[in-house]
Design brief:
about 70% helix; about 375 residues; about 5% strand
């Protein structure tokens, strides 16, 4: 009787473990998404009234994206993460086809001199965001599968770089140099974690740097961005315009900010205030204190992701968690660094805060995957005592 009585609570605990959501991960994400909706409205209302004759155009769409993102998070939380192991190649092939469709099909949508979206009526989808997830899944699967021979050049290094090259080549044709560079850093990081020899990784970094310099030199606008990054005030009327007004926004914010809705730079001075440069609007309206609070929320997510990777039940889960966490961390750091003038201008959204359906939905799906890995690890992975 005692054994039977003990079995019932154990079964209940097991059932609860299958449906529980990791609060340490969910809380900062939902807080950022909610605050992001408010800031998207604040940053975009002037642009929306001018272009669409409605203050609420971007607000309504972002709220809808957030709802879809929550559904994606819930769905991915309940899909066993090991299922992605079987989808490694199908996801990769799908990503390559979508990237090719951007360039070759009539569904490709161009804006600002780049072709980075697929359009289906009023909906737009950015395949490079999906390609990032597909590449991470492939690398996690491949690194686990080849763990015993990962030190060999032809096994642990060449195949992964070849796949990266194929994906990056299609992204560079859009052109989107920044996204290709992020994928390269992710691939190198995951190979390092997987145990690929440091000699191969280190020596190839030189070749990668030379290739990056070559691609920068090919495009005049990239050179102008680099020069404006080195001295934005000297180029404040052209290539340095965005950085100058971004820095002015942060400077005007002070400690406590001008108040939500009271920012000045978003009024047609700062380009893309609700997407790439929403962090600048946040800095102006909520000040240094608000910016530091957002950074703390991001650090909570990254810390939790690293902890999940360390406590994952198997190598695939560990590699998948570290890849997804690193992708989020890179996107956060690059966006913030660009808005603060620490990196050349790159069109990249700020996770959970910037306006954009593809980025928001996929990033929330990533959180769901991380939660599933944590749940599979048991109480330790979920942070329970």
């Amino acid at each position: 009787m005692k054994a039977a009585a003990a079995a019932i609570p154990a079964a209940n605990r097991s059932r609860a473990a299958r449906i529980v959501y990791d609060v340490q991960l969910l809380f900062p994400v939902l807080l950022l998404v909610g605050f992001g909706i408010v800031m998207v409205y604040s940053a975009s209302s002037a642009v929306a009234i001018k272009k669409y004759d409605s203050h609420y155009f971007f607000l309504k769409k972002q709220a809808l994206f957030a709802l879809v993102g929550i559904c994606a998070l819930a769905a991915c939380r309940h899909v066993p993460y090991r299922f992605y192991r079987r989808l490694a190649y199908p996801l990769l092939v799908t990503a390559l086809l979508l990237l090719a469709a951007v360039l070759l099909s009539p569904l490709g949508v161009s804006a600002g001199g780049s072709s980075r979206w697929l359009g289906l009526g009023p909906l737009r989808f950015q395949p490079s965001e999906f390609a990032r997830f597909a590449l991470i899944v492939y690398l996690a699967y491949s690194l686990e599968k080849k763990a015993d021979r990962i030190k060999e050049f032809s096994i642990g290094f060449v195949p992964h770089v070849a796949v990266l090259g194929l994906v990056a080549a299609l992204i560079l044709k859009q052109p989107d140099f920044g996204s290709a560079a992020i994928l390269a850093v992710l691939t190198w990081l995951m190979m390092f974690v997987g145990g690929v020899r440091l000699f191969y990784l280190g020596s190839s970094c030189l070749l990668l740097g030379l290739a990056g310099a070559y691609f920068i030199s090919l495009a005049g606008y990239r050179m102008r961005r680099l020069l404006s990054f080195l001295d934005p005030w000297q180029h404040s009327a052209d290539a340095g315009y965005q950085i100058v007004h971004s820095l002015m926004a942060f400077g005007a914010g002070g400690w406590w900010g001008a108040g939500i809705g009271n920012g000045y730079q978003k009024l047609f001075y700062l380009p893309e205030p609700h997407t790439d440069f929403i962090f600048s609007v946040i800095g102006e309206e909520v000040g240094l204190v608000g910016v530091l609070a957002i950074i703390v929320l991001y650090l909570m997510i990254i810390w939790k992701g690293i902890r999940i990777a360390r406590q994952a039940p198997d190598l695939f889960g560990s590699y998948l968690a570290i890849g997804l966490t690193a992708a989020l961390g890179l996107q956060i750091c690059i966006n913030m660094a660009v808005t603060l003038g620490l990196l050349p201008t790159k069109g990249l959204t700020l996770p959970f805060l910037s306006y954009g359906g593809t980025s928001l939905v996929l990033n929330m799906a990533v959180i769901g995957v991380l939660m599933n890995i944590a749940a599979a690890a048991g109480p330790a992975g979920r942070g329970a005592p």
